[in-house]
Design a protein that fits this description.
heterodimer; A: alpha/beta; Rossmann fold; B: alpha+beta; Beta Polymerase, domain 2; five-stranded mixed beta sheet; 20 helices; 17% strand
């Protein structure tokens, strides 16, 4: 039973108390298996991001190899490199142009915390992209290996659907 | 050549003496200090004799600021350092951008990092820094930017014209290979003017260098040019070795050559894939990454990383190569040789590609000199200049290879030069492998704490993109007093505005790709 309001399906609580629990789950599964990242290379990590998308590591196995050159078609922003103060407004604009639901993956130490470019008297680096936009997954490394980025994608899937596609690695320490 | 220039320069300068420097220690042959009234004359003097402005550097000595002009020559090895002292309280210098076009960009850089204003410069606005900055970052003391200066520096507005509009190419654009922004003034589909805006990835490497010891700065070199980090590593390491007089064992020199050339291959392969992706062909991208992964497989066990290598050390190497490395490299040479015919079929013999790139972005020899382009772009323009030949470091002097040059100077020539350079690189690796000597990989004489003698050094190496110049000023402490990186992509980008003028927007992307830019290296 779907209640149609004046402007289509209305999901506001007072009007329509039913939650599409199952539908949401199916949608989440679809989203998790077709994450379209944005072609957004910032620095060194962008090369490893490209390597991940290429034949050896084959990001397409996880349905995430469709790199979009425009933010309006993308679900995921991979912040692959150092964010400078000059780049920050551009990055926020790009994030705002992405349609919801959207995710952000901070790739590499620079995007996580400014990485090696934080020192006393630094004047140009944003110390972590999470100061600008909400970040879902952090992938450390300088630069992270492609395997690490793949693990980041699996983590993101886990976050979206609530379960993991493969069994995780054994914890050794 | 050096003698002749010394005599002629002495005659031009009259009162000021021209000194002769020890090239082995300093990296330049002659030096002279000029007064600001003489500067333009000196610039014209070098212009008439076919020199190019290799680098323009500013150093803050606290009591005075010093501008350092390095003039160099394509035909024969002769480097001249011209210095100009200016008052730090009121820093003004005459511009030489009217004589050497590339000075236009260097002077803008110095303006925002040191606050030196150049008389007669047409456009003194921010190139690198964001507009919120309120001091001159590379001055030794914190000097605030006055409101007046701020207004002048932030005055960059692309000029308006009738029937024209603006297109921002970048900072997020797939074909700018990173975060380069070019403001294009368009008349319909044709470009009237192009203004690069840099600094979207300015990571303060030069400031960092002043804050850490020589060894601590070593990993930064790999992050500057992420496609050719070995060459940057090599440049920095050989520069410091030259400054401190550290000997390097033979085996280390040969391994350095092999690894730098392997890295050059991987850089050129990456360029090939990215360039064709810019032009709309996505298939070669997959092929080149296949080859790149093979190179990574060889380098990873030796260097310990896949991308931002930090392998060379002062006086040797971090790790020795083993038999598996040698066998792997030999197998890779065979493999890549067989792949060249495939690339030739796929790209070089492809009518769509050749027709698309022939005749666009033509660089003449004269313009190449004035804009101080270097590397494959310079050789594509027809000037046979390779620093591996003219100033060989490591074991390059013992290698036998030719310098490919283009005939037309267009984008297709740049492609052909790079392909032939890749073949050359394979030959060099093969020679070095055949002659690889046994022995230690690290000198025993390397001091634990480096304290180079007082003085300066301008050292150059050939990176995959061209001439890398490192200017180090040492004050006998364990940290460099000033380190300036003259990077190849920055100089190569300078020629883009005039190449783009009058071209179609679609061709501008093809021209930009042919220059092979790496953005973090431009921004530093």
């Amino acid at each position: 039973m779907v209640c149609l309001g004046e402007r289509g399906v209305c999901l506001e609580k007072e009007v329509f108390p039913v939650k599409f629990a199952v539908v949401e789950k199916v949608l989440d599964l679809a989203r998790a298996n077709s994450i379209w990242p944005m072609t957004f290379g910032l620095a060194c990590c962008a090369i490893e991001m490209m390597s991940t998308a290429m034949s050896r590591f084959d990001l397409d196995r996880f349905g995430a190899g469709v790199f979009r050159a425009t933010p309006r078609q993308a679900d995921l922003m991979i912040v692959s490199g150092t964010v400078t103060k000059k780049m920050a407004p551009v990055l926020v604009t790009l994030y705002e142009q992405m349609p919801s639901p959207k995710w952000v993956l901070a790739m590499g130490n620079c995007a996580i915390s400014g990485g090696p470019f934080v020192f006393e008297g630094q004047y140009n680096v944003i110390e972590g992209v999470d100061l600008l936009v909400p970040v879902d997954v952090y992938v450390p490394g300088c630069p992270p290996r492609p395997e690490a980025l793949l693990e980041g994608f699996l983590k993101l899937e886990e976050k979206i659907t609530g379960k993991r596609r493969f069994p995780g690695p054994e914890s050794r320490w | 050549m050096v003698e002749r220039i010394k005599a002629e320069l002495g005659a031009t300068l009259k009162e000021t003496p021209v000194g002769e420097a020890d090239y082995r220690e300093r990296g330049y042959h002659l030096f002279a200090e000029v007064a600001s009234a003489d500067l333009l004359n000196v610039a014209r003097f070098f212009d008439e004799r076919g020199f190019y402005l290799a680098a323009l550097i500013c150093v803050d000595y606290k009591e005075y600021l010093e501008l350092v002009y390095i003039f160099s020559n394509h035909a024969s090895l002769c480097k001249v350092k011209i210095t100009l002292k200016i008052d730090p309280a009121k820093p003004v210098a005459p511009t030489i951008s009217t004589v050497f076009d590339c000075a236009y960009w260097h002077e803008r850089e110095i303006r925002e990092f040191f606050g030196v204003s150049f008389d007669g410069h047409p456009n003194m606005t921010y190139l690198f820094l964001h507009e919120g900055i309120d001091f001159y970052p590379l001055r030794k003391e914190k000097i605030p930017v006055s409101d007046e200066d701020k207004k002048a520096l932030g005055a960059f507005r692309p000029g308006e014209g009738e029937d024209t509009f603006f297109v921002n190419l970048g900072p997020q654009h797939p074909s700018t290979h990173g975060v380069l922004r070019v403001v294009l003034k368009m008349d319909g589909e044709y470009i009237e003017d192009a203004q690069p805006v840099l600094g979207y990835l300015h990571r303060m490497h030069e400031k960092m260098a002043e804050n850490r010891s020589y060894l601590q700065f070593l990993p930064n070199t790999g992050r500057m040019d992420y496609l050719g980090p070995m060459a940057f590593n090599l440049g920095y390491v050989t520069a410091v070795e030259r400054l401190c007089g550290i000997p390097v064992p033979d085996r280390a020199n040969y391994v350095r050559v092999i690894l730098t050339e392997l890295n050059r291959l991987s850089s050129h392969l990456m360029w090939l894939g990215a360039y064709l992706a810019d032009l709309g062909a996505l298939t070669p991208f997959l092929f080149v990454f296949d080859d790149r992964e093979e190179i990574n497989d060889i380098l990873e066990p030796v260097t310990g990383s896949r991308l931002t290598y930090c392998y060379f050390r002062f006086g040797g190497l971090y790790n020795d190569v083993d038999d598996a490395f040698v066998a792997g490299t030999r197998a890779f040479i065979e493999r890549l040789r067989s792949r060249f015919s495939l690339y030739e079929k796929l790209v070089g013999g492809n009518v769509i590609f050749t027709n698309r790139t022939r005749g666009i972005g033509v660089i003449t020899k004269e313009r190449a000199r004035k804009q101080a382009v270097s590397g494959p772009v310079l050789r594509g323009a027809g000037i046979p200049m390779d620093i591996r030949k003219s100033e060989p470091c490591a074991a390059y002097g013992e290698m036998d290879f030719d310098v490919p040059v283009g005939t037309r100077g267009d984008a297709l020539d740049m492609y052909q030069v790079r392909i032939r350079e890749m073949e050359n690189a394979l030959n060099i690796i093969e020679q070095a492998l055949a002659r690889l000597p046994e022995g230690p990989i690290m000198t025993e004489k390397a001091p634990r704490k480096l304290k180079p003698p007082k003085g300066d050094l301008y050292h150059t190496v050939e990176t995959p993109r061209g001439e890398l110049g490192i200017y180090i000023v040492s004050d006998e402490s364990d940290k460099p007093y000033r380190m300036k990186w003259r990077v190849p992509s920055f100089s190569n980008l300078m020629i883009f505005p005039e190449l783009a003028k009058g071209n179609l927007l679609a061709d501008a992307v093809a021209i930009l790709g042919s220059l092979d830019l790496v953005i973090p290296e431009i921004d530093r």
